[in-house]
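Q: What structure does this chain adopt?
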Amino acid sequence: MCGHPKHQRSELTREYVYLLGLYLGDGCISAHRRGVYRLRVFLDLAYPMIIEECVAAMTAVVPTSRVNTLERISTFTPSDVPSHVEVSSFSKAWPCLIPQHGPGKKHDRPIVLKDWQLQLVDRWPEPLLRGLIHSDGCRFMNTGRGNWRCPRYAFSNKSADIKDIFCYGCEQVGVHWTSAGKKNIYVSRKADVAKLDEFIGPKG
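A:
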């Protein structure tokens, strides 16, 4: 399809699964001239280690393509200071490697993992969850009456399919989740939060 030698998808690594999580959370793929596509992932400047890990993952997945970073100013809050960074890479291979690419917003179209992607996720669910949390999730302190405080993870996405993928990853590592509203998935139990803390990293 992309003109590259046949992809050995079974040989893709943990870095690919992490990058898949980043894309599903807050990434997009756009078509350019001559059959080239651009993968972009948008990340908070407050987490430079996540930005570095995203650059490393893109490089590992398509080592022949240069990875670029560009600081952006938020369109949601009035400020002249960049708030996030766009990490991007051009390649003809992106639609083959991330077949969830399509026209329009991800929450307006079906997002279903291919069988070969599910096999990789079953092998490495941790980097999938890591990528999803790093792009579209957070860890925060949940509070209640009587100075009650307990850490909690949240994943927020408009796509029901992407939320289902997050929940599937949680189940693969034995983590209980709950849903709230149309967008949010929470991991709240102490043991489950501790399990995610083992591998989430900078947002943990």
